[in-house]
Amino acid sequence: MENDLMLRIEDLHVFYGGIHALKGINIEVPAGKIVALVGANGAGKSTTLRTVSGLVRARQGKIEFQGIDITRESAHHIVEMGLAMVPEGRRIFPNLTVWENLLLGSYTRRDKEEIKEDLDWIFRIFPRLKERVRQKGGTLSGGEQQMLAVARALMSRPHLLMMDEPSLGLAPLLVKEIFNIIRDINQNGTTILLIEQNAKAALQIAHYAYVLETGSVVLEGRGKELLENEKVRKAYLGEE
């Protein structure tokens, strides 16, 4: 395996009952990069992330994280290895404060001083969370809850951060802000695998991207190249 690969997915097949959800996909995520998966609903994007994170079992194929085969690893151990996911729909703990949600993100860690440093860093990236640190998660706006979900995942200090539809349901101004934050997180050294229905926003920040259709990779290339691709423009950017 090449040293600069954070994640490699090889010939991955996943079934939900009789439904063949992933049909032998191959995806590579280089260390330090943003890689996007784009495609319509039901294309297999979320299934890919759920399989990588150990929540869904593959029928066939192999998943390597930093050169280690994690295809059969438990979800808990995968988090401990340095792979975190921000699930679709935020899923913060609504009855806990912002502070408590963030501390839960660091539950696998024992390095108290570095946890404190990371909290300071989180509050620099997300000043709004600092303002609302004693508020319960459920009282935050949709955009603030999305920021809290991202921040909580970052508190595990992941090598790879997987994000499932981070802009879903957000106002356009907030979408722009979330994508700027994703870029900042990446520039701070975190590798990102991003699923996003807002294909244009995702391809603008992605170093590399894969287009999924009904469980198969049908196109791949640099993010900016796919933005110019006629098929992508028609199918995913709403252009004629």
Which radius of gyration do the C-alpha atoms yield?
A: 17 Å
Find the count of extended strands (DSSP E, 2+ residues).
Answer: 10
CATH fold group of the largest domain: Rossmann fold
Major sheet details? 6 strands, mixed
Overall shape: globular
Q: Which class of secondary structure composition applies to the elements? A: alpha/beta
User: How far apart lie the N and C ends?
Assistant: 41 Å
Helix content: 25-40%
From the 3D coordinates, which CATH architecture of the largest domain would you assign?
Answer: 3-Layer(aba) Sandwich
SSE string, helices as H and strands as E: EEEHEEHEHHHHEHEHEEHH
CATH superfamily of the largest domain: P-loop containing nucleotide triphosphate hydrolases
- Beta-strand content: 25-35%
Mean pLDDT: 90
Tally of DSSP helical segments? 10
CATH class category label of the largest domain: Alpha Beta
Q: Main sheet: which strands, in order across? A: 6-7-8-3-9-10
- Low-pLDDT stretches: none
Number of domains: 2
Task: Describe the structure in brief.
By secondary structure, the chain is α/β, with parallel strands linked by helices.
Secondary-structure map with pairings?
Layout: E1 5-16, E2 19-30, E3 34-38, H1 45-52, E4 60-65, E5 68-69, H2 75-81, E6 83-86, H3 98-105, H4 112-125, H5 127-131, H6 142-154, E7 160-164, H7 172-187, E8 191-195, H8 199-205, E9 208-213, E10 216-221, H9 223-228, H10 230-236
Parallel strand pairs: 3-8, 3-9, 6-7, 7-8
Antiparallel strand pairs: 1-2, 1-4, 4-5, 9-10
Helix pairs in contact: 3-6
